[in-house]
């Protein structure tokens, strides 16, 4: 099963629109629109943390998306 995650924009006012996070995302989750970072395909995030680790301004945070199913029986 593929790893899932969720990227969050914690500090949008800190973003300088450098585009590094957009370039390093393997799933095209982020985009620059009107010099602002936007989450455009959030459901495709795999939680790789590349965007968070590459952001020089600490704008983004990736959290693990816990979609584990509980087995009862």
Low-confidence residue ranges: none
What is the level 1 CATH name?
Alpha Beta
> Between the first and last Cα atoms, what is the distance in angstroms?
22 Å
Total count of strands: 4
- As an assembly, this protein is single chain
Give the helix/strand class: alpha+beta
CATH topology: Alpha-Beta Plaits
Please tell me what the overall shape is.
globular
Count of runs of 4 or more consecutive helical residues:
2
Using the 3D structure, state the CATH architecture: 2-Layer Sandwich
Give the strand content: 15-25%
Number of domains: 1
The proportion of residues forming helix, as a percent range, comes to: 10-25%
Radius of gyration using CA atoms only: 14 Å
Strand order of the largest sheet: 1-4
The biggest beta sheet is recorded as: 2 strands, antiparallel
Mean of residue pLDDT?
88
- Helix and strand run: EHEEHE
Characterize this entry briefly.
This protein is 14% helix and 25% strand. With 73 residues, it is an alpha+beta fold.
Structural commentary:
This protein has 73 residues and is an alpha+beta fold. It has a single domain (5-64), classed as Alpha-Beta Plaits, CATH 3.30.70. It contains two helices and four strands. It has helices spanning 20-24, 50-54, and strands at 5-9, 30-33, 36-39, 60-64. The strands form two sheets. Strands 1-4 form a two-stranded antiparallel ribbon. Strand 2 (30-33) and strand 3 form a beta hairpin. It starts with a strand and ends in a 9-residue tail after the last strand.
């Amino acid at each position: 099963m593929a790893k899932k995650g969720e990227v969050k924009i914690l500090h949008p006012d800190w973003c300088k629109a450098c585009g590094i996070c957009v370039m390093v995302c393997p799933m095209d989750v982020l985009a620059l629109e009107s010099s602002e970072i936007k989450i455009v395909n959030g459901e495709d995030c795999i939680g790789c943390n590349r965007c968070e680790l590459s952001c020089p301004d600490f704008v983004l945070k990736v959290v693990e998306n816990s979609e584990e199913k509980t087995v009862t029986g």
